[in-house]
Amino acid sequence: AEWTHALHLTGKGRGAAVGPVAASYAAVLLPRMANEFFEAGHEAAAPAATIESLHAFRILGKRFRYTLEIFAPCYSDGLQDALQLMRGVQDILGMINDCETTGRILAKAVSRGQREHVQALLDQRQAALIENFRSHWNETFASEGECRIWMQMLAKPAFAPASEIGDASDQQAAAC
User: Fold this and answer.
1) Which residues of 70-98 are buried (b: 16+ CB within 10 A; e: fewer)?
2) What is the DSSP-derived secondary structure letter of residue 156?
């Protein structure tokens, strides 16, 4: 709320009080964050990815999503669809992390015999969730040009004066 207020993103109706500074900042910041998100997501979806790399991607994705939500008033409703896709990825990553956390708690809380049985179930659940994440990532985010689409959308806020944005969108989209 403080960031939203400080960036003058408050007011009645979408874009009602979006200042050119906020929109310009979003146009530069968000495409960079999108590129970082996509690069990390491709690594996290790789078969050799570790639980630690999945968790690091989860944190990076949360930071990106929360930043998108702050700047959402600068964009059209298309951003809401993108945020929904991100929530799906984060939900799966959160459940993977829950399995890992539950296993650590379990190791301290129950006897070895009980722990082995429950840990085996947690490991199965986690493996299925990791496969679900990879499938979801590959179907939703890994397609050819998807990163470029996100970067172009984020480089051109709907509620910003065109003169404030400049040519940054074309330069940033080339990074994918």
Assistant:
1) bbbbbbeeebeebeeebeebbebbebbbe
2) S
3-class SS at 65?
A: helix
Q: What span, in angstroms and rounded, lies between the C-alpha atoms of 156 and 27?
A: 6
Phi, psi at 175, each rounded to 5°: -70, -25
18-73 pLDDT per residue, tens: 567 788 889 999 999 999 999 999 999 999 999 999 999 999 999 999 999 988 88
DSSP state of 41: H
| CA 146 to each of CA 15, 79, 136: distance values in angstroms, whole numbers, following the listed order | 26, 14, 14
| Dihedral of the alpha carbons of 135, 37, 28, 4, in degrees to the nearest 10 | 90
The continuous run of DSSP H or E covering 99 comes out as helix 78-109
Q: pTM (2 decimals)? A: 0.80
Phi-psi region of 8 (alpha: psi -120 to 50; beta: other; left: phi over 0): left
